[in-house]
Amino acid sequence: MIENIDSSLIDWSRAQFALTAIYHWIFVPLTLGLAVVMGIMETIYYRNKDEFWKKTAQFWQKLFGINFAVGVATGLILEFEFGTNWSNYSWFVGDIFGAPLAIEGIVAFFMEATFIAVMFFGWHKVSRGFHLASTWLTGLGATISAWWILVANSWMQYPVGMEFNPDTARNEMVSFAEVALSPMAVNKFFHTVMSGWVLGAIFVVAVSCWYLLKKREADKKFALESIKIGTLFGLVSTLLVAFTGDGAGYQVAQHQPMKLAAMEGLYEGEQGAGLIAVAALNPSKEAPDDGVNPFLFRVEIPKMLSLLATRSTDSFVPGINDILKGGYTQYDGTTAISVPEKIERGKTAIRAFAAYRKAKADGDEAGAVASAKLLQDNMPYFGYGYIKNANDVVPNVPLTFYMFRIMVYLGGYFIFFFLVMLFCYYKMDLTQTKWKWLHWVAFLTVPLGYLAGQAGWAVAEVGRQPWVIQDMLPTNAAISAVGVGSVQLTFFIFLALFTIMLIAEIGILMKAIKKGPEIN
Amino acid sequence: MKNTLYKIWRFYVDGFKSMTTGRVLWLIILVKLFIMFAILRLFFFPNYLNEHTNSSDEKGEFVGEQLIQRGQ
Predict the structure, then answer these.
(1) Cβ of A486 under 8 Å from any chain B Cβ?
(2) DSSP-assigned letters across all residues of A234-291
(3) What are A72-82's pLDDT values in tens digits?
């Protein structure tokens, strides 16, 4: 029986996963960022034994704890969704994801749970050195957890180190190192974690500025010292995020050229392609090959996209139409085949898979061997066999394009913001009323920090559509044939649940911030 | 060894007893975990493959059939 997968089921399943991932990514980056801040503060206390720094560290640890407690286990819901709504995908990747997610769970449970207890309970019970180590290890635990999740996500973007087993219909890991240390994974890890550092720094500066705004005399020294640490940490982190962002762009160019083309609104490839600085997409453009100019206007940095993509200013960067039509020389020297050709090869792979299973069931060993060979030869295009129309491999260009711009513009703004804060800290008296506007800017930068992170994830995940696993499994093959109604119901349950949790967290955080560090 | 275990036990007990904000946070964690595992997981997120198959081999067969059918 052939199942009819309703397109609305795909949309609601994607929307549900996106909603839970977005909420999860509200809590995680602040955990990652505050983990470093509290480590820095306590390290200063460890070195100078000044009770002021102990109280300072304890305050930021308190806020870390609030965010950590509300956010903990929100990621587990994503795993529930794998098993219910994305069962084909869950089975298909099970052998690859099993190890990273298991390690993540074990590390998260043992390392974070152990050391977070020492961090909160152990101030008067363990030595200062052991307590400091526990604080850093709490943060390290959270960061190592992130590593394994990002390894799993990176594998979805650039599947490596595996072989498809037609007997079990699963991908089996053949090289743990290739999966865990894939260049996509390494770059994504640093870029994502450091984006959390930027948010943590913004948060610290903003909370500190709030004390200055409220003229809290008792907290003045705390606010100024926290601004100094936060700003320095933020500036370094933002520059590192920019550096790793360049690396991420290179990886995307090498392994996901369609995503890069969508990020840049590039429909026709160019030699010495420029990077869009400012542009507006033409809403009239409805299809890649409709001949309509994709831009209303554009200002680009000459040759910068080629440099980003290949480290050479004169290289050819394929556009959406080039990728669809094929025929251009790829970065590995081979000639790109067209998407219709990939679809044919994908269909060949699926037919070979079916033939293999039938041959095995019939005891036809020769037939099974031949089918297995045909499947293996066409496996790189397996996912294309589910694509009905070549244009379906083009992601949502406006969303990818504008989210990329939002992320990059905000990144640039954060560098400027931290530079201004640093200058004002050293050259001005930030406690004066005339800097009230700057305190408000810092305060209003917090939602921008969250927006930048979410925009980055939107680029990563929308830009890879329709692929759940790049080239291997699209969304229509990955989802479970469940009723749309159940997905819609759980979507709204999550919306309500997470919103309540977020409101609770904001309430508890505000209460703790209003109480202050109680240093004097 | 027994003394060490007792010290660890007292460490956690004393720590939990001295919590202030932590008590509210623990309440949130426990309520959240209850909702997630006792309600959502149980009633809204059954494992699709476990519901339709009985063993790993059957899961492989089931998914394999799905992958073939969806490609037709």
Answers:
(1) yes
(2) HHHHHHHHHHHHHHHHHHHHHH-HHHHHHHHT--S-EETPPEEEEEEE-TT--STTS-
(3) 888 889 989 99
